[in-house]
Write a structure and sequence with these properties.
The chain has 368 residues and is of the alpha/beta class. The protein has two domains: 2-46 and 149-218 and 310-362, FAD/NAD(P)-binding domain (3-Layer(bba) Sandwich), CATH 3.50.50.60; 92-140 and 220-308, D-Amino Acid Oxidase, Chain A, domain 2 (2-Layer Sandwich). The protein contains nine helices and 18 strands. Strands 1, 2, 8, 9, 10, 11, 17 and 18 form an eight-stranded mixed β-sheet that branches. An eight-stranded mixed β-sheet has the order 5-6-4-13-14-15-12-16, sandwiched between helices. A two-stranded antiparallel sheet has the order 3-7. Strand 1 (2-7), helix 1 (11-22) and strand 2 (27-30) form a beta-alpha-beta unit. Helix 1 packs parallel to helix 9 (335-351) and helix 3 crosses helix 9 (335-351). The longest helix is centred in the N-terminal third of the chain and has 25 residues, at 57-81. It is an enzyme of class 1 (oxidoreductase). This is Glycine oxidase ThiO. GO terms for molecular function: flavin adenine dinucleotide binding; glycine oxidase activity. Keywords: Oxidoreductase, Thiamine biosynthesis.
């Protein structure tokens, strides 16, 4: 019997498995499809909340811890697996920001590197970007990571770890309960028992809790994205070299010259179909920021399902009314951003260690 069964093998489940195994736990990781193929694959990979001052302090606490961890994590994964997650610490440039004063107050309060810059500095950073205002905001330490490659590296790390068993195509159909404890989970691949159970089910977490008669305020929120391919890419003079954010939309460059634009916010249930309307909206947003993209080709369009929660604050800790059931879910738009901190916190709580991060704001009982 395993020490822990984790339900969900996205970035959150994979990182949690690594944390628990590093402390000596034997872990079974169950995934309803393929590991790291849902929101973990579909997102953009910016290692910062968009407009971070607009989020509650509990999100800032997790994001700050995670941002300090990602560089080390990327190096660890490449050493372990030979696979690079392609972490690029090139900064975040924000244009057309209406609440700059609040952003600067937030940065001062939390000691985060964020400054106001003028048009000359913007042009020096990104000469091809269209400038509509003569100033913007600059966060030089923000990184981006190529999330599909992060997912592959995490999965390979799990496969190489003898303390972790990954079971794919193992959708959980029921939890077996006995006097306020979970004894086992039933899946399409069989029955799995453990001393503790952790739900990292992303957008499906609410439905999993519903099978236990518990209400968890997590719902799917669709996001669509486009990928541009620049056939004339010159690594010495890229069309775009850092993440740019304007009017709620962002551009993310990759090392090979590809550029992502995202993202929509759609509350349409578990529908992952793409639409012509979203494609046109994203295309126009991309060109409004970087007009030269009109000479590039749209290589792909896709959609993913974020685990939406009230105010974007995740649920991290023991599940209400269950002695050995834990949650790490509801990270909304910031799952990848918050994953290292969230997984360290849930491991601390499950293992009885003194948490490095205050767990109080993420308790189920304190959230709607």
């Amino acid at each position: 019997m395993a020490d822990v069964v984790i339900v969900g093998a996205g970035v959150m489940g994979l990182m949690a498995a690594r944390e628990l195994a590093a402390a000596g736990s034997r872990v079974i990781l169950l995934e309803r499809g393929e590991a790291a193929r849902e929101a973990s694959w579909a997102g953009g990979g910016i290692v910062s909340p968009l407009y971070p001052w607009r989020y509650l302090d509990p999100i800032t606490a997790l994001a700050s811890w995670s941002q300090g961890r990602y560089l080390e994590l990327a190096r660890e994964l490449e050493r372990e697996t030979g696979l690079s997650p392609e972490l690029r610490q090139k900064g975040l440039l924000m244009l057309s920001v209406d609440d700059e004063a609040e952003a600067l107050r937030w940065a001062d309060r939390h000691q985060r590197p964020l400054t106001r810059i003028g048009a000359d500095k913007i042009r020096a950073l990104e000469p091809h970007i269209r400038i509509e205002r003569e100033q913007g905001l600059w966060m030089p330490e923000v990184a981006s990571i190529r999330n599909p490659r992060l997912g592959r590296a995490l999965r390979r790390s799990i496969e190489l770890n003898p303390s972790i068993e990954l079971v794919s195509n193992a959708e959980v159909t029921r939890f077996d309960l006995n006097q306020g404890r979970v004894d086992a989970v039933e899946t399409m691949q069989g029955r799995f028992r453990a001393g503790q159970f952790l739900v990292c089910g992303g957008a499906w977490s609410g439905g999993l809790m519903e099978t236990l008669g518990l209400m968890l305020a997590v719902e799917p929120v669709k996001g669509q994205m486009l990928l541009f391919n620049n056939p004339q890419h010159d690594a010495s003079a890229p069309l775009l070299d850092r993440v740019v954010l304007a009017d709620g939309r962002y551009l993310i460059p990759r090392e090979d010259g590809r550029i992502l634009v995202g993202s929509t916010l759609e509350r349409v249930g578990f529908d992952k179909q793409t639409s012509i309307e979203a494609r046109e909206s994203l295309y126009q947003s991309a060109l409004s920021m970087l007009p030269a993209l009109q000479d590039c080709t749209v290589e792909a369009q896709w959609a993913g399902l974020r685990p939406g929660s009230p105010d974007g604050v995740p649920y991290i800790g023991a599940a209400e009314g269950m002695e050995n059931l834990f949650l790490n879910a509801g990270h909304f738009r910031n799952g990848l951003v918050l994953a290292p901190a969230s997984c360290r916190l849930i491991a601390d709580l499950m293992l009885g260690r003194t948490p490095e991060i205050d767990p109080a704001p993420y308790r189920w009982s304190l959230l709607p």
